[in-house]
Amino acid sequence: MQAIVPWAIWAGLILAVLGVVLILIFGVVSLVRGKTRLISIAIIAIPAVVLGVLWLLGMTWAQAAIWTAVVMFVLGLLGLFAGGVRDVIGV
Asked: Is the dihedral of CA 28, 34, 50, 47 positive or negative?
């Protein structure tokens, strides 16, 4: 049982990376064909950019990941708040 755990972890990581690569490929193809806008792809890249910037500022990967989650949570709350305010004032 113990021998299969590392293999399962590696298989999960490989599948996750493969999924992200496929998302990127299909996103670029959709962008080239004009089926999507650049802003929708840029919004998806925000967490990766935040993670990279925080890591470059001298944090460890774990600290940068935690702060990225916090920043994305706050941005999500601000987005919900802005959407609610926009609906209330009718813009």
From this structure: negative
Burial (CB count <10 Å: 0-12, 13-18, 19+), residue 55: middle
Each residue of 1-16: b (16+ CB within 10 Å) or e? eeeeeeeeeeeeeeee
The DSSP secondary-structure symbol of 90 reads T
For residue 8, CA distances in Å to 1, 16, 37, 83 come to: 11, 12, 37, 41
HSE of 74 in the Cβ direction (CA atoms, 13 Å)?
A: 7
The structure's pTM equals 0.65
From first to last of its 91 residues, what are the pLDDT tens digits of the chain?
Answer: 678 999 999 999 999 999 989 988 998 899 899 888 888 888 888 999 999 999 999 999 999 999 999 999 999 999 999 999 888 887 7
